[in-house]
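Hi P.,

Sorry for the delay on this. The queue was packed all week, but I finally got your sequence through. Input first:
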Amino acid sequence: MQRIRLTSAILAATAATVLGLSLADVTSASAHPGTSHQAAAVQPRVVVLNCLGKPQVKPRDFVLTCADGNSALTKMAWNSWTPAMASAGGTLVENDCIPSCVGGHFHSYPVLAVLWGPAAYQHGKRFNRLTLLFPGARPPIFNGHRWVPGPLTVTYPLWAG
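Then the structure:
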């Protein structure tokens, strides 16, 4: 259990550094569990919107490509969910679309997902950025001539709903 907490703390610090956030912003909401009811009353709930525009908090699964479902986060275990950032470990499942997306194969990659960049929307606040950090194997990308290992981190804008 201590190893999981240490790993989560290291990943949160790494994510905060990568995203340019202060560690105090990332951890402040979860550092004082006794004040969670007061904090919830003062700070708006921050959500992530799914493909249908429905708000979610700590979703176990999250589709990244709404049109075809060829990329999704699965088995998400949330380490933190604060007004500034949320982070979870899980699996990226992605279709290689070779020879086509219909005939392609799905591959799994361990991932740390970080939701950040809270922004206003009609019902409160929503995260509008997603950064994926790959601690091990990562999805390949085609560089125009051949398949090469993809980047260690990837950031996406999220839909507004």
